[in-house]
Design brief:
The chain has about 475 residues and is an alpha+beta fold. The protein is about 50% helix and about 15% strand. A hairpin with a 5-residue loop joins β11 and β12 (about 350).
């Protein structure tokens, strides 16, 4: 098997019987639970999409495994990866940040960086390579978790003795034993596997690890937040009914990780090197920005539809607001293509997209996206509040609602359908989660700005100014 379809994906997830907890209860069949059903169905549709013959030049590599697993060796490979990401993103309006291509890219980036683990203590690059080959051959789906719970974030927090963070507590003949908690596993319980690793800067060696385990592993629990997608009506909740991915706290109750699934442990230096020198950052950022370009195009299109619907295009402030979104789209796309154009082949033969344009793009999007939702609110105004339900339009009120809520372009029902979509982007609980998600994707915006500052070749610019300053003629 090289790529799976939607039916196989759902069959696998239902068969796992993972320990997923929702509202204090153990979920019996996650594929049929209202809090998960929409996201799982949409994920299944993405798998079906990659099997459609018309798309296989994009969705499949020359070796007939999924393009999302492709380690780029040429600039053409980077372009192909972008096209695959954007094909799937267009299907979801960019609203599924954990569509399969994201985590497949993460795993591919680790495999592409295996040379950094060679000759390192407690590191197993051969195991990592073997697991990558297994994952792409079986088209496995993944979530991941790497953030410690939000407890004591002070600089001396590592002195705390009452440790909540997931850590290695024992090593046996069978493998590592993990105890504690991690967040934030988006799609927790909705995938075949969960990749668990430590973020850069681990303070103790028991926090430094990289492994992958099935989501139904004994002692592993996913504790989910309240769902933002409980209304299954496509009219009332056009996005949240389909693309709610769920987020979860991951609990490790003395979870045994078999040695063949352990790729790194008790080595802080190696764990940090995977981020500093590895391909994790450039490859995942390339996937993220590819999706964000499509998400920007979707929200831009929605803003234009509202302007056309209520015929406000003649107002300069309206043109200015839409122009903000147009400029954002052009900037993001330019930065994405620049990262590909300036890509360089590294010592391992991997074509690595340029990091600085990608860091710049994602940092800008952290600012752009909240502004996008604000613009939708400003354009839609009271129309985003006056939103009768689907049932109201099927009642005796239908004629009145179609008349009194009509515009010069549409009847009341069609106008409300459009505004419901804008509401689900800019005002619903689902939309608010999307805004928070994009605001902090890949880290604190201030820290990313620090990375941009530190990554920039400032000396060349300083030298340019210095030479001009002392130029005689």
């Amino acid at each position: 098997m090289k790529v799976i379809d939607g039916a196989e994906y759902k069959r696998r997830i239902a068969a796992l019987k993972s320990s997923v907890w929702y509202d204090g209860k153990l979920v019996e069949d996650i594929t049929d639970h209202p809090a998960f059903r929409g996201g799982i169905q949409s994920q299944a549709e993405l798998y079906d999409l990659q099997n459609e013959e018309e798309h296989q030049s994009i969705t499949m590599s020359s070796s007939q495994f999924g393009t999302s697993y492709l380690i780029p060796r040429t600039k053409a490979d980077l372009e192909k990866r972008r096209k695959l990401v954007q094909l799937w993103a267009r299907y979801t309006a960019g609203m599924m940040g954990r569509s399969p291509d994201y985590m497949n890219t993460v795993l591919a980036s680790f495999a592409a960086s295996k040379n950094l683990l060679e000759n390192e203590e407690n590191c197993f690059p051969d195991r990592l390579q073997a697991f990558y080959e297994k994952a792409k051959a079986e088209d496995l789906s993944f979530t991941h978790t790497f953030i410690n719970p939000q407890n004591n974030r002070a600089s001396l927090s590592f002195l705390d003795e009452d440790d909540q963070n997931a850590r290695i507590v024992d090593k046996t003949e069978e493998g590592l034993v993990i105890r504690g908690a991690k967040l934030l596993a988006t799609q927790g319980g909705m995938t075949d596997e969960v990749i668990v690793y430590s973020a850069p800067g681990a303070s103790k060696k028991e926090y430094a690890y990289l492994f992958s385990i099935p989501t139904d592993t004994a002692g592993l629990k996913f504790v989910c937040r309240s769902s933002f997608g409980v209304d299954s009506s496509r009219f009332n909740s056009p996005l949240s009914s389909r693309f709610e991915e769920m987020d979860s706290l991951v609990l490790f109750d003395d979870v045994l990780v078999p040695w063949e699934r352990v790729f790194l442990y008790d080595n802080i230096r190696a764990a940090n090197q995977l981020y500093v020198k590895g391909k994790f950052t450039p490859m995942t950022l390339h996937q993220i920005v590819s999706r964000q370009v499509i998400k920007t195009e979707f929200v831009l299109g929605l803003a234009i539809k509202i302007v056309e619907e209520i015929q406000i295009e003649e107002y300069h402030h309206v043109q200015s607001k839409v122009a903000e979104m147009i400029k954002a789209r052009e900037s993001l796309k330019a930065l994405l293509l620049l990262s590909e154009n300036e890509a360089l082949e590294d010592e391992a033969g991997v074509m690595v997209p340029a990091r600085l344009p990608l860091y710049t793009a994602i940092n800008e999007f952290q600012r752009f996206y909240p502004r996008f939702t604000e613009i939708l609110q400003l354009l839609g105004a009271s129309g985003l509040v006056t939103l009768p339900s689907e049932d109201a339009f099927q009642s005796d009120l239908r004629e009145d609602l179609n008349f009194y809520l009509r515009t010069g372009v549409s009847n009341g029902e069609d106008k409300v359908r459009l505004y419901r979509l804008a509401w689900d982007v800019a005002m619903s609980s689902f939309g608010s989660r999307q805004t928070l998600y994009e605001r902090f994707f890949f880290g604190d915006p201030v820290r990313i700005e620090q990375v941009i500052y530190q990554s920039c070749n400032k000396e060349s610019y300083s030298q340019f100014a210095e030479e001009f300053l002392h130029k005689k003629s």
